[in-house]
Amino acid sequence: MTLTVLMNAGPWLSVPPPGYGGIENVIATLVPELRRLGVRVVLASVESSTLPVDERISVFPDGQFPALQRPYNQVCGVSQAHLAGVVRALHARDDVDLVHDHVEAVGLATLAAMGPDAPPVLHTLHWDLAKHPELYGNLDGGDRVRVNGVSASQLARAPRALREHSVGHVHLSTPLAVDADRRPAVAKGDHAVILGRINPGKGQDLGARLAHRVGFPLVLAGPVGPYHRPEDLAAAGDEARQNPDVRFFHEQVAPYVDGELVRWVGTVAGQERDDLVASARVSLFPLRWEEPGGTAVVESLSLGTPVVATARGCLPELIEHGRTGLLTTDEEELGELVRAGGRLEAGECRRVAAERFTPARMAERYVELYDRVRRGAARP
Ligand code: UDP
Predict the structure, then answer these.
(1) Whose CA is nearest to atom 11 of ligand 1?
(2) Minimal-distance CA residue to ligand 1 atom 1
(3) Phi and psi (nearest 5°) for 170?
(4) Host domain of residue 212
(5) pLDDT digits 0-9 by tens, 341-357
(6) Ligand 1 centroid from CA 262, angstroms
(7) Are residues 193 and 331 in the same domain?
(8) Which residue has the least CA distance to atom 22 on ligand 1?
(9) How far is CA 259 from CA 17, 249, 265, 324, 348, in A?
């Protein structure tokens, strides 16, 4: 019997995302593999999503990412409107076997409250939950609602109520776009790269300071709040500083960005992103938060670039110290490790990624979890 899954990607970005977009990248990678395994996928997203699926549900024409800068009640309004569309669609049909939800607690609570005839829900946790326990206060729905983590460390830190609803974790895979097998090997340059949202938790300020202290070139790639290009941020007035990531960039990171040793190139996508990472001597993750899943970490391995990082969150699960990267709990040591990390083997990183973090593995694991959720199984 064909399994029909409603994949809820939310209203924020199209799938695949135009550039930055962790959750949307995961969905864009997972869905083709699920379909290869015979799963029918109904995608709840925005109309501009181009991912091939069996059916679509959309409320908004385009990604509502810019609305995230608006006041909180307006953000919730967008979220609720999207969800109302999903719930309407679910009430109108009875062929959906399971909802795989990636959005947020608001969505989960609503799906949980749909009543006993609604399909079971598997909600993938994408955040560091220890920071936001209040988001998941009410998980009504009993055995119909289950959650999975994206790393064991994320689940271990999650509030108890969530752990009790958990069916395990699934490590993130490299996106299909990063097709390491078909890529010619790119010559290594001298630079380290930090790929990710510019944000205090991702620690670009620390990376930039160490680059100057130790003397290695560093490229920072990723958006600053809603700004994807340096010229857009430059053109934004002082009001832009209301955004905490913009303020963080101006106050903590920009003083080190001299355009020579340390550069901020904005959001990079596609081939440009892959080449930037593949040609780096190491990817640096100077984390100051407990990284829950780390797509950029496994992407780096897949592109043959070892990882130097703070040993926080899921990093010790993903990186084998001395083989695919170097980890430390000492922030100041990170700078020295950039040099040593460059001596690790690119081929070994690719091999480990091809064994452990493939889209096919991620999809097989999700099919197992779908089965467990549908059978109403308790924790493993
Ligand atoms: N990313 C990108 N361009 C950028 C910065 C990030 O394409 O300039 C992608 C990156 O390759 C990864 C995703 O955005 O696939 C970020 O996901 P991750 O789990 O690393 O971080 P988070 O979800 O916490 O932002």
Answers:
(1) 296
(2) 20
(3) -130, 115
(4) 180-356
(5) 999 999 999 999 999 99
(6) 20
(7) yes
(8) 22
(9) 28, 15, 9, 29, 32
